[in-house]
Amino acid sequence: MLARGCSVREAGNHICSHAEQMAEGVLCSLVTVDRSGHLHPLAGPTISKEYSAALDGIAIGPGVGSCGTAAFLGQPIAVENIFTDPYWLPYRALADILAREHEVKACWSSPILQSDGRVLGAFGFYYKENRGPTEDERMIVAECVDLCSLVLEREEMKAENQRLAYFDILTGLGNRANFIRTVEERAKNNPDPFGILLIDIDHLGQINDAFGHTTGDRLILEAAHAITRIIGPEKSFRVDADEFAVLIDNDPSDLAAVCTSILDAMAERSLQENSHTLRLSASCGGAICDPLHPSGVPSYLQHANLALHHAKQTARGSFVLYSDELAGAVTERFRVLQTVTNALIEGRIEPHYQPIVRLDTKEIVGLEALCRVRTADGQVLSAGMFAEALQDASLGHQLTNLMLKQVAGDMRSWRDQDLPLSYVSVNVSMADFDQGDLRARISQIFSQEKVPPEQVVVEVTETVYMDERDSKVGQTIEGMRADGLLVALDDFGTGYASLTHLLNFPVDIVKIDKSFVDRMSGGPGEVIIKALLGMASGLGVRMVAEGVETTDQALRLQRLGCGFAQGYLFGRPADRDTTTEILRRQAQQRSA
Question: Strand, coil or helix: what is 383?
Fold first, then answer.
């Protein structure tokens, strides 16, 4: 039957009809028992619909008629008089329906068991005489119960597969497929606008790495509880490992308020893991969807995803609503990422070097290696034009790795040519520190080229230096300095770093940001630079002024006591060959 594609109800009716033909004068029914222990009529072509409706939803238990008791006890129950037997006394109304509709006086029910022993349902024989089953009827029912067990177990397996296909195992919420199906049905059946929220748990991957996936799963459950407390489980979905989705079916103009409620509910929840308190926080992106708009469901989902991505990049821990302007910014970011990715694949990433000079002699003492992307048509893009790519953990890591290898190779070449050079500085990002292997990578790459560590300067921007994860940054900086590398604090003064950072995580070089150099002439920049130089002298730190573009700036810096500078006045960033020629000319001037 099932092999021919008939439904479980059709198969059950067929079994009941077969049993009624084999046992003359008997009425037959098949009821199922759900996982919460409630009865539901499934089959019985000759049984009154009124009786089936009255039976539906009754909880099994001792003394719940014949079927309810048999299912509860897991053994056959024969009642020869349904009007006087204690099992039926609470259900006299059901007995009256059977008597009125079918002249039934007795009932015998047998449990239907799954292979693991769980009760799936009950198979009932109804008699018009006060009697129990005959031996022939016991044989008929035994055969029917076996068939019913196969049918119901197969149906339960289908239901479980359906559950796995559309529901998340951990939270019990609908999964991505369920969410997409729900959004599609909503858009198809109702022309009114609705809203979509995508909610991403912040830093779940780091929590899994630090405390294990069991802790991460507990945090996911806390997030699910917080979301369903505000939205309810029917409109809440877990669509990815750390991502939830919410369908706002009422007033979509209030998305921000709904999201704020969700984020506040999540913020109230935390986990205690040993001595650590793990706070639950999330980023959220939303989109208002108009079923009358021709873009369709895929666009709705893309819009919400773009908003979430933007929230994670620029407003972590808060809510961003999709707009056309946002789409333009995200599209541009994707274009930049794609440009850099293609350049990596095709070998079009190269370092350009800007000289760092002594102000008194104008001698080049160092170089800063700056990442450049050469486009397919030969255009050279500066780092500012692909800064977004450096924020991407994977791309930033790859770019730094390639730059380190190329710089190490160039330094080896310059050393082999005996060209005068004290050091080359390379820039690293937070993505490099997050990888956890920056110190080992730098050490391995430069040692392979036999470049002394004291000739390598690692530049760290102030924003990275004072990041909330600065314990990781500080430990790595201390380790690199212990290896003999020099560390420079770049863009000093542009953030909110305090001198405490320099006490906790000492550096070898501090680079004064261009904004102070630009404001030296009759402005506060000169006062600040003078103070910074005094601080540097007291700490034994070398100071380098960035962005020097005029002779007047160079003279003022030298008069204030600044020993080193870089900027367009002394040279623009240049490729390896041009830089090699500059270093060669300096070597010739020295020997002349």
Answer: helix
d(C-alpha 29, C-alpha 442), whole Å: 77
Within 203-296, where are the H helices?
204-211, 213-231, 255-267
pTM: 0.57
Burial pattern 327-351, b for ≥16 Cβ within 10 A else e, equals: eeebeebeebbebbeebbeeebbbb
- Write out the two tokens for 115: 């292979």
Name residue 431's amino acid.
A
**CA atoms of 512 and 528, how far apart (whole Å):** 10
pLDDT at residue 468 is higher than 60:
no
Tokens of 132: 């129990």
pLDDT at 592: 64
Bridge partners, 31 (sequence order):
41, 122
**What would the 3-class secondary structure string for 439-484 be?**
HHHHHHHHHHCCCCHHHEEEEEEHHHHCCCCHHHHHHHHHHHHHCC
Q: What is the pLDDT of residues 533-578, one digit of tens each?
A: 888 888 888 999 999 999 999 999 999 999 999 999 999 999 999 9
Could you tell me if 166 and 237 are in contact, meaning their C-beta atoms sit under 8 angstroms apart? Answer: no
* Whether pLDDT at 189 is above 70: yes
Phi, then psi, of 556 in degrees rounded to 5:
-60, -45
CB neighbours of 167 closer than 8 A, spacing ≥ 6? 173, 174, 175, 178
SS (H, E, C) 119-185: EEEEEEEEECCCCCCCHHHHHHHHHHHHHHHHHHHHHHHHHHHHHHHHECCCCCCECHHHHHHHHHH
